[in-house]
Amino acid sequence: MSDRFKHVSQDLGGLFADLERRVQATVDLTAQVRTALQGAEKDHVVSVSCRDETLVVLADSAAWCPRIRYAQQQVLDALRATGETRFTKLKVKVGRR
To answer: Which of the 8 DSSP states describes residue 52?
Structure first.
């Protein structure tokens, strides 16, 4: 790499590290939610994200949204048991794999 672009790549290193950390946190949280679900709905969770105090769960079809929503308290309790206390409610939306 030329010296002309060296400073750019050094600045991006921190940004990529932060992005990698955030992606891993999302993957880990998605795995925790799947583990908390005990029925077939666990296989239909695409991903999760958080918005303030709301855990947003993406399901692969609208048919699974009510079943995941029904397990809201079970999911939140399981997350609290692992020390994840920032969520007070759960919202389910349709997403794509």
So the answer is: T
45 and 68 Cβ atoms separated by less than 8 Å: yes
Q: How far apart are CA 6 and CA 28, in angstroms?
A: 33
Domain count, the chain: 1
What predicted TM-score, i.e. pTM, was given to this entire model?
A: 0.81
Task: Give 46's contacts (C-beta < 8 A, 6+ positions apart).
Answer: 58, 59, 60, 95, 96, 97
pLDDT, tens digit, 9 for 90 and up, residues 17-55: 888 899 999 999 999 999 999 999 999 999 999 999 999
C-alpha to C-alpha distances, 12 to 1, 2, 15, 19, 52, nearest whole angstrom = 14, 16, 5, 10, 27
CATH code of the domain covering residue 77: 3.30.300
Note down the domain range covering 10: 3-94
